[in-house]
């Protein structure tokens, strides 16, 4: 399959026709690539779950062309939600609202709420316009794995299973949308993402609640502790510990890819088994590069990814969140246990 050709009108028309006939289309958004199907067709929506290997109770986001479609898919919409849609759509913000009768159970996993978002990408916008309905779409990856930020990623991981893949180039933002729920009295953050929480709070004139995964019943699959994970163990540690940890891993026989952020000592490590990759020090650029870098490192050369943890500030919230979830489940254990557990998991999953 050839990529890097931006779809023309003809391709958009055939993608919309495919959606109308109940097929699946992978398409670019400003955050990550989505795997889309007609949101009003439960049979089409089922295909997404089958392709992703995603449990059917995990709800999907319905993508819409504009805020004017909110009333079609949701009801009892609070003013605050309208305000956010008006300010940030199209953009990397998903609103969780009470669903309208149009939303099938297949989309919401039987919940009474629906996730809605208007993506800010010309190809997604053209597709939504041509299709005329809502497109249910999770990220176009297998359940629990890394989200794709290029059409090539989608092709490599889901290739033959998807009806059509539209190429819109590399995603501008690179991490998924911020999810805010309006189901509770106070707006609640379910997932940090491409839109900063401070920007949302500024518009609302109030703080939003932050929900820790594991504290509440998992509503957003991205809130599962192990998620957004590359195929090889991933670990983040402080800049101070980076070199020591890299050496420790290399001496145990691991081929370590080190993602450093301006830790110059790391670049001069020059030790067998350690390769350094310099990551940007701006959070926006880091986000844009993160998944593409992790996809690239999962190529058979390395068997451990060690990242220098970014600062624990709001600005890096979404990236720190994804790193925590990408980390091996055993991260709370001691280093030795971590290695054993991860190796065991790898062995078991072969
Ligand atoms: O940036 C994004 O949001 C991308 C692009 C393709 O739009 N989509 C995406 O979809 O990340 P997905 O399914 O990989 O993650 C969406 C998250 C899931 O964790 C899902 O559980 C949550 O949104 N979600 C969807 N509907 C929900 C609902 N009604 N209540 C709570 N969480 C919901
Ligand atoms: Mg996803």
UniProtKB/TrEMBL annotation:
<feature type="binding site">
    <location>
        <position position="31"/>
    </location>
    <ligand>
        <name>L-threonine</name>
    </ligand>
</feature>
<dbReference type="GO" id="GO:0003725">
    <property type="term" value="F:double-stranded RNA binding"/>
</dbReference>
<feature type="binding site">
    <location>
        <position position="113"/>
    </location>
    <ligand>
        <name>ATP</name>
    </ligand>
</feature>
<dbReference type="GO" id="GO:0061710">
    <property type="term" value="F:L-threonylcarbamoyladenylate synthase"/>
</dbReference>
<feature type="binding site">
    <location>
        <position position="63"/>
    </location>
    <ligand>
        <name>ATP</name>
    </ligand>
</feature>
<keyword id="KW-0963">Cytoplasm</keyword>
<dbReference type="InterPro" id="IPR050156">
    <property type="entry name" value="TC-AMP_synthase_SUA5"/>
</dbReference>
<dbReference type="InterPro" id="IPR005145">
    <property type="entry name" value="Sua5_C"/>
</dbReference>
<keyword id="KW-0067">ATP-binding</keyword>
<feature type="binding site">
    <location>
        <position position="137"/>
    </location>
    <ligand>
        <name>L-threonine</name>
    </ligand>
</feature>
<dbReference type="InterPro" id="IPR006070">
    <property type="entry name" value="Sua5-like_dom"/>
</dbReference>
<dbReference type="InterPro" id="IPR038385">
    <property type="entry name" value="Sua5/YwlC_C"/>
</dbReference>
<dbReference type="GO" id="GO:0005737">
    <property type="term" value="C:cytoplasm"/>
</dbReference>
<keyword id="KW-0808">Transferase</keyword>
<dbReference type="InterPro" id="IPR010923">
    <property type="entry name" value="T(6)A37_SUA5"/>
</dbReference>
<feature type="binding site">
    <location>
        <position position="228"/>
    </location>
    <ligand>
        <name>ATP</name>
    </ligand>
</feature>
<dbReference type="Pfam" id="PF03481">
    <property type="entry name" value="Sua5_C"/>
</dbReference>
<keyword id="KW-0548">Nucleotidyltransferase</keyword>
<dbReference type="GO" id="GO:0008033">
    <property type="term" value="P:tRNA processing"/>
</dbReference>
<dbReference type="GO" id="GO:0005524">
    <property type="term" value="F:ATP binding"/>
</dbReference>
<feature type="binding site">
    <location>
        <position position="117"/>
    </location>
    <ligand>
        <name>L-threonine</name>
    </ligand>
</feature>
<dbReference type="GO" id="GO:0006450">
    <property type="term" value="P:regulation of translational fidelity"/>
</dbReference>
<comment type="similarity">
    <text>Belongs to the SUA5 family.</text>
</comment>
<dbReference type="Pfam" id="PF01300">
    <property type="entry name" value="Sua5_yciO_yrdC"/>
</dbReference>
<dbReference type="GO" id="GO:0000049">
    <property type="term" value="F:tRNA binding"/>
</dbReference>
<feature type="binding site">
    <location>
        <position position="177"/>
    </location>
    <ligand>
        <name>L-threonine</name>
    </ligand>
</feature>
<protein>
    <recommendedName>
        <fullName>Threonylcarbamoyl-AMP synthase</fullName>
        <ecNumber>2.7.7.87</ecNumber>
    </recommendedName>
</protein>
<feature type="binding site">
    <location>
        <position position="139"/>
    </location>
    <ligand>
        <name>ATP</name>
    </ligand>
</feature>
<feature type="binding site">
    <location>
        <position position="191"/>
    </location>
    <ligand>
        <name>ATP</name>
    </ligand>
</feature>
<comment type="function">
    <text>Required for the formation of a threonylcarbamoyl group on adenosine at position 37 (t(6)A37) in tRNAs that read codons beginning with adenine.</text>
</comment>
<keyword id="KW-0547">Nucleotide-binding</keyword>
<feature type="binding site">
    <location>
        <position position="147"/>
    </location>
    <ligand>
        <name>ATP</name>
    </ligand>
</feature>
<keyword id="KW-0819">tRNA processing</keyword>
<feature type="domain" description="YrdC-like">
    <location>
        <begin position="9"/>
        <end position="195"/>
    </location>
</feature>
<feature type="binding site">
    <location>
        <position position="54"/>
    </location>
    <ligand>
        <name>ATP</name>
    </ligand>
</feature>
<dbReference type="InterPro" id="IPR017945">
    <property type="entry name" value="DHBP_synth_RibB-like_a/b_dom"/>
</dbReference>
């Amino acid at each position: 399959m050839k990529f890097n050709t931006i779809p023309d009108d003809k391709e958009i028309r055939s993608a919309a026709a495919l959606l109308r006939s109940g097929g699946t289309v992978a398409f670019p958004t400003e955050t990550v690539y989505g795997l889309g199907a007609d949101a009003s067709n439960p049979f089409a929506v089922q295909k997404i779950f089958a392709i992703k290997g995603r449990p059917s109770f995990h709800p999907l986001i319905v993508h819409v062309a504009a805020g004017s479609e909110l009333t079609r898919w949701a009801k009892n919409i609070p003013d605050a939600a309208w305000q956010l849609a008006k300010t940030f759509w199209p953009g990397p913000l998903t609103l969780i609202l009470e669903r309208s009768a149009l939303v099938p159970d297949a989309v919401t996993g039987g919940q009474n709420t629906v996730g809605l978002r208007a993506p800010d990408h010309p190809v997604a916008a053209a597709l939504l316009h041509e299709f005329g309905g809502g497109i249910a779409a999770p990220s176009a990856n297998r359940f629990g794995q890394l989200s794709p930020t290029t059409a090539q990623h989608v092709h490599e991981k889901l290739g033959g299973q998807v009806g059509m893949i539209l190429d819109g180039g590399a995603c501008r933002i690179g991490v998924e949308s911020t999810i805010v729920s309006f189901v509770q009295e106070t707006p609640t953050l379910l997932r940090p993402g491409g839109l900063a929480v401070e920007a949302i709070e500024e518009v609302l004139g109030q703080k939003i609640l932050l929900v820790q995964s594991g504290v509440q019943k998992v509503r957003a699959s991205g809130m599962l502790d192990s998620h957004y994970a590359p195929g090889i163990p991933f670990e983040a540690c402080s800049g101070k510990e980076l070199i020591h940890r890299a050496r420790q891993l290399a001496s145990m026989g691991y081929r370590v890819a080190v993602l450093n952020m301006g830790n110059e000592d790391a670049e001069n490590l020059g030790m067998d088994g350690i390769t350094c990759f310099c990551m940007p020090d701006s959070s926006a650029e880091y986000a844009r590069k993160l998944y593409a870098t992790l996809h690239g490192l999962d190529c058979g050369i390395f068997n451990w990814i060690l990242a220098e943890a970014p600062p624990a500030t709001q600005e890096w919230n979404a990236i720190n969140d994804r790193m925590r979830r990408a980390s091996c489940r055993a991260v709370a254990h001691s280093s030795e246990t971590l290695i054993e557990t991860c190796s065991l998991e790898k062995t078991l999953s072969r």
